């Protein structure tokens, strides 16, 4: 798969982690995939999973160790993972409640 969007320049420091998550999407969050957060910043995170997601898609990320603290994100970029074959790195921007 080719890169579907350029990766925006990073303006904030990242914290690198390996934290298992579930990404929910679809009508009433009825679909779910497993992945791992690979880095996190103040405004978003990068999740590695084996399913690409559509740009602009709204998702809910549930951290396995804290299932009651799910947060909503928007997919801002998708690329092939450089370190994991047949996986994708997905940039997610935190949705701000307004």
Walkthrough of the structure:
It contains no helices and 6 strands. It is mainly β. The chain has a 6-stranded antiparallel barrel with strand order 1-2-3-6-5-4. The N and C termini lie far apart (35 Å).
Estimated share of beta-strand residues? over 45%
Helix/strand structural class: mainly beta
Q: How many β strands by DSSP?
A: 6
Report the major sheet.
6 strands, antiparallel, barrel
Helical coverage, percent range = under 10%
Low-pLDDT regions: none
* Shape assignment: globular
Please provide the ordered H/E string of secondary-structure elements. EEEEEE
Mean pLDDT: 88
List strands and helices in order, with pairings:
Elements: E1 15-25, E2 31-40, E3 44-49, E4 58-63, E5 71-80, E6 88-94
What's this model, at a glance?
With about 100 residues, the chain is an all-beta fold. It contains no helices and six strands.
Summary keywords:
six-stranded antiparallel β-barrel, globular, mainly beta, 98 residues
